[in-house]
């Protein structure tokens, strides 16, 4: 597994809606990493693969990674699960709740959880335990970004796009108070007039 560091990305900053956002991973870097992740996923030879995108933050990453996986010959079925731990703020509540569950059975199938960010590990550990208890043959996890120093529980992703410094990130599906999911890059919130 190759994890890309932030230092290789050229710095750009944007001021918008009272926030200053510095680009950490630009769109071309993310696209290259998604193609690499797809090849890493193919290499573990998943069987009867079900991809479960964890909403809301992973929706852009999941769509792009699924297309990259298609280019590598994978034909997974796709499900969505919404789990909440942040609600409307910039820090986790520490409690994971199911907002939307998947519709189909995962018993006997390999599952790939896709999430935007791995920090405390609570959300993904909760999802992995839940799907394992439902009989999944194997539960793997792909995250766009991990913050290695932020774990509250013991959990490691199988596939990691980037290893990030401990900053609040937005863009490419990630938000601050429901803003900036649409940005085509991942950025660091450096300043907020009204956060």
Strand order, biggest sheet?
1-9-8-7-4-5-6
Poorly predicted segments? 1-10
Helix content: 10-25%
**Topology as H/E string?**
EEEHEHEEEHEEEE
Shape: globular
Q: Tell me which oligomeric state these chains represent.
A: single chain
- Gyration radius, rounded: 16 Å
Distance separating the two termini: 36 Å
Notes on the structure:
The structure is a single chain. The chain has helices spanning 27-43, 59-71, 122-133, and strands at residues 4-5, 13-16, 19-25, 50-55, 77-84, 97-100, 110-118, 138-146, 159-163, 169-170, 186-192. It is of the alpha/beta class and 195 residues long. It has a single domain (4-8, 24-86, 93-177), classed as Rossmann fold. Mean pLDDT is 89; it is low at 1-10.
Spell out the blueprint of helices and strands:
Blueprint: E1 4-5, E2 13-16, E3 19-25, H1 27-43, E4 50-55, H2 59-71, E5 77-84, E6 97-100, E7 110-118, H3 122-133, E8 138-146, E9 159-163, E10 169-170, E11 186-192
Parallel strand pairs: 1-9, 4-5, 4-7, 7-8, 8-9
Antiparallel strand pairs: 2-3, 3-11, 5-6, 10-11
Helix pairs in contact: 1-2
Search tags:
Rossmann fold, four-stranded antiparallel β-sheet, 195 residues, globular
Write a brief caption for the model.
By secondary structure, the chain is α/β, with parallel strands linked by helices. Helices cover about 20% and strands about 30% of the residues.
